Amino acid sequence: MQCQIVLPKPLAGKKAISDSLKWRIAVIFEKTNSMITKVTHMCVYVLNQDSAYDFYVNKLGFKIHTDAPMGPDSRWLTVTPPEQPELEITLFPVKEGGMFDTETAHTMTELVKKGVFGAAVFTCQDLMATYEELKGKGVEFKKAPTKEFYGYEALFKDDSGNWFSLSQQRL
Amino acid sequence: MGSQKMEREQYPKLYLYRRIVQAKLFIDRHYAEPIDLAQIADEACFSRFHFSRLFKNSYGKTPHHYLTKVRMDNAQQLLAQGVPVYDACFRVGFDSTTSFAALFKKHFGVSPSVYQAGQLQKQTSIAANPLYAVPNCFAETFGWKKSNIR
């Protein structure tokens, strides 16, 4: 199989460099340019995983990626947006134990309920159609669709209180 | 009131959206049945061509392609649950395993049986060691170890 060796710009076109050296430079260059490549997991703090499961799967239409019990009282629950199977959204329970002591768990619960956390920006093909559908399923919107510089945007809340932007890019 | 005004200004044909959304939800509910898309268009009071065009504008797919996608997504779920390929095919509304297998491979790049084997293998791995699915940073935070999560 023939491969094209891609060299950094200053070295491109230098005929005096042997092929083996070109390969070594190309590999080093590639490695140094491949730092962070993707987001694979993000966390959304939820107050109840069963209720979050229902909201994200049955209302938003997300897919379950992993739902595994972790001992008697814990559960690892991740979902993915319908057309982005490589991004796992971890539905992280806010409860005492693990990373939350009693006080922190209480504070976090209040903050999530209060709607302090904006968790992500989702996109869709047609905001108005998606808005109508989600509203019909009982999703609470903080803001109906509005025209913005880049397209359209609405804001909705999940069952815990986290808010999300739902956008449609202008074509 | 303000948002309704905004809706009217920006989406003067809101009633059209509502009919399109209803048609989409009908497909979501009845994908396993022999759905006649022409009939849906008639019930929504659209000509077939107009319906197809509006649906595609909203969802990026024709009604037929959307129906196929919904069937494929549900087939994926059934296969992951261990339902045999033959049963999964009929339970999502196909009447031919050959066309089902061909469409499945076109959508997901692997045959239904290969997909199922991969999913069952993943589930077996997670059942044997749930930490297989959890990035270590989270496992450490929660104090999850192989010895205390079984």
Written account of the structure:
The complex is a heterodimer of chains A (171) and B (150). Chain A has helices spanning 19-33, 49-59, 102-114, 127-136; strands spanning 41-46, 63-69, 75-80, 88-93, 118-123, 140-147, 151-157, 163-169. With 171 residues, chain A is α/β, with parallel strands linked by helices. Chain A is extended. By secondary structure, chain B is mainly alpha-helical. Chain B has two domains: 1-60; 64-150, Orthogonal Bundle (Arc Repressor Mutant, subunit A), CATH 1.10.10. Chain B has helices spanning 2-10, 14-30, 37-43, 48-59, 63-80, 85-91, 97-108, 112-128, 136-142. The longest helix of chain B has 18 residues, at 63-80. Chain B is elongated, with a radius of gyration of 21 Å. The termini of chain B are far apart. Chains A and B meet through strand 2, helix 4 and strand 6 of A and helix 1, helix 2, helix 4 and helix 9 of B.
Features:
heterodimer, A: 171 residues, alpha/beta, 2,3-Dihydroxybiphenyl 1,2-Dioxygenase, domain 1, 2 domains, 4-stranded mixed sheet, 8 strands, 29% helix, extended, B: 150 residues, mainly alpha, Arc Repressor Mutant, subunit A, 71% helix, 0% strand, elongated
Total number of beta strands of chain B? 0
Range of strand content of chain A: 25-35%
How would you state the average pLDDT of chain A, rounded? 88
Largest interface, counted with CB-CB under 8 A? A-B, 28 and 31 residues
The CATH class of the largest domain in chain B is: Mainly Alpha
Largest β sheet strand count, sense and barrel closure of chain B: none
- Most strands sheet of chain A: 4 strands, mixed
Class by SSE composition of chain A: alpha/beta
Radius of gyration of chain B: 21 Å
What's the Cα radius of gyration of chain A?
Answer: 23 Å
Task: Classify the fold: give the CATH topology of the largest domain in chain B.
Answer: Arc Repressor Mutant, subunit A
Catalogue the unreliable spans of chain A.
Answer: none
Instruction: Count the DSSP helices of chain A.
Output: 4
Q: Percentage of helical residues of chain B?
A: over 70%
